[in-house]
Amino acid sequence: MEQIFEGVYTEKGKLYTLNIAPGSRVYGEHLISVGGKEYRSWNPYKSKMAAAILRGLREMPIRKGSRILYLGAANGTTASHISDIATDGIIYAVEISPRAMSDLVQVCKIRKNIIPILADASKPESYEIIVGEVDVIYQDISQRDQVGIFIKNMERFGGEGILMVKARSIDVSMPPKKIFDKVKREIKNKFEIKESIYLSPYSKDHMAIFVKPTL
Ligand SMILES: C[S@@+](CC[C@H](N)C(=O)[O-])C[C@H]1O[C@@H](n2cnc3c(N)ncnc32)[C@H](O)[C@@H]1O
Fold first, then answer.
1. Ligand 1 neighbours by CB, cut-off 6 Å
2. Atom 10 (ligand 1): residue with closest C-alpha?
3. Which residue's CA lies nearest to atom 7 of ligand 1?
4. Could you report the per-residue pLDDT of 152-205, keeping only the tens digit for each?
5. Rg, Å, the chain Cα set
6. Whole-angstrom Cα distance, residue 156 to residue 84?
C-alpha cells in the first residue's frame, strides 16, 4: 500500500482508505488486510471524490483533523471514506431524504465522527447552530440550483470547497462543457478555483471543482 494523501492509499491502480470500523462495510466494498491493517476499497464509480483523485487531483483538502460540512450525504458511501480520512476531525452530514437518512444513521452508529443532519442544504440557517465554522465544504447535490446552494453555504461556514457539478441537473438541453464554463464563471466571482477535474469515465457529465476563499 502506498499512501498518496493523508489517509488515502493506492495499490495496483485502486484506491483504499484505512477502515476505522474494521469488519464493517457500507456499500459492499472489498475489505483487504495488509500488514495487520484493514483497508476498504474506494470505488470511483460510486464516489465522485474517489473519481477526482484517480483523475489527477493535485492537492487534497480533506485531512486527518478536518472539520467538514458534507451536503447531500445520501446513504453515506463517500462520507464513510471521508470518515476514514478525517479520523481526528468531524463530518456534519446533511441529507434531505428521510429514506437515505435512515441508512446514514446506521453508518453513524459505527462511525462516531459523522453527525447526521436531516435538513435542506438550501436553508443553511436551519443547521448553523450545530455546525459553526468548518475547514471544508463538500457538496454533491443533483439539483438545478446546486451552485447557489454551494455559494450560500460557503459564505456562511467558510473554509475550502469541493463542488461536484452534475451538468444535466442544471440544464439537460445545454452541452455539459458550456454548463461547466458557466458554473466556473459564477464561482470565480466569489472564490478562487484551485482545480477543476472532469470525472468521466467514472461519472459522465460531472466535474469536480475545488475552491478556496479569495484573500
Ligand atoms: C448524488 S446523491 C449523493 C451521493 C453521495 N454524495 C455519495 O457520494 O455517497 C445526491 C444526494 O443529495 C440529496 N439532496 C438533494 N437535494 C438536497 C438538498 N436540498 N439538501 C440536502 N440534500 C439534498 C439527495 O437526497 C441525494 O441523497
1. 47-48, 71-74, 77-78, 94-97, 100, 120-122, 140-143
2. 141
3. 78
4. 999 999 899 999 999 888 888 899 999 999 999 999 999 999 999 999 999 999
5. 16
6. 26
**CB 29, CB 15: distance < 8 Å:** no
| Start-to-end C-alpha separation, the chain | 38
Mean pLDDT (whole number) for 97-109 = 98
Report which ligand 1 atom has the smallest distance to the Cα of 48: 8
CA 18 to centroid of ligand 1, rounded, Å:
25
pLDDT at 171: 86
Please state, in angstroms and rounded to a whole number, the distance separating the CA atoms of residues 58 and 96.
31
Sign of CA pseudo-dihedral 57, 209, 124, 80: negative
Give the residue-averaged pLDDT of 91-99: 98
The fold of 43-213 is Rossmann fold (3.40.50)
Domain ranges of the chain: 43-213
> pTM (2 decimals)?
0.97
The DSSP code sequence of 80-106 is HHHHHH-TTSEEEEEE--HHHHHHHHH
Compute the mean pLDDT over every residue in the chain, rounded to the nearest whole number.
96
